[in-house]
Task: inverse folding
């Protein structure tokens, strides 16, 4: 009687053992999960909140759309509260700006201007916000508000100077006036003359997008700077 006849499963056993040895020797392919797009949080007031507009037409959504058109992968998260001053933003920055935020667009000061808050107070509040973000190693884009001279020449000069000063102090990019190219236009503003309409929000998002895209590339430098 042949060995094969005595052990009918021997051939199958040896074939299986060979296949197992080959599989163990073959290099394993590891699937690397795709990285999540960075989160951009827009901390602001009624313009950021999209007062008078559906969410899809508000400035954060328009910023998202503009970044997408540029081929920039990111998730824009709105964190605006209508009526918020710089003091309100300072009070809530640590819970309104979630830990997964890579970059925060700080767009506050418009209500300070409307309420006549002293520029030094606004500056101190914004400095506190920027310091908090810096300590959490979150990148920053600072967005200013333009004070018109008719509100008082001295006040306007001091108010308009605080944003560039803070941008220099923290070495962060500045978008000097959130309503640049939009404010004063009946075609781009809502009836109150304060808030942009959908077309105005689209312009703001489009103009802000290149600065935000560039800031995303320099986040390690920003968060390391002191």
Result:
């Amino acid at each position: 009687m042949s060995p094969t006849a005595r052990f009918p499963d021997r051939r199958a056993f040896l074939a299986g053992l060979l296949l197992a040895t080959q599989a163990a020797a073959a290099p394993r392919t590891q699937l690397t999960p795709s990285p999540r797009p960075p989160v951009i949080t827009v901390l602001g007031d009624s313009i950021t909140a999209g007062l008078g507009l559906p969410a899809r037409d508000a400035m954060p959504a328009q910023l998202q759309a503009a970044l997408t058109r540029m081929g920039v992968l990111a998730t824009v998260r709105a964190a605006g509260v209508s009526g918020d001053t710089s003091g309100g933003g300072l009070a809530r920055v640590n819970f309104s700006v979630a830990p997964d935020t890579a970059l925060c667009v700080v767009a506050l000061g418009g209500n300070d201007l409307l309420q006549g808050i002293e520029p030094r107070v606004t500056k101190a509040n914004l400095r506190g916000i920027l310091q908090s973000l810096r300590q959490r190693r979150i990148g920053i884009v600072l967005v200013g508000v333009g004070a018109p001279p008719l509100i008082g020449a001295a006040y306007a000069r001091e108010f308009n100077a605080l944003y560039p000063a803070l941008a220099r102090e923290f070495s962060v990019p500045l978008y000097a006036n959130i309503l640049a190219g939009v404010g004063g236009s009946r075609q781009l503003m809502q009836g109150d003359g304060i808030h942009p309409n959908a077309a105005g929000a689209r312009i703001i998002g489009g103009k802000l997008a290149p600065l935000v895209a560039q800031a995303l590339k320099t986040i390690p430098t920003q968060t390391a700077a002191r």
Residues 1-5 have pLDDT under 50 and may be disordered.
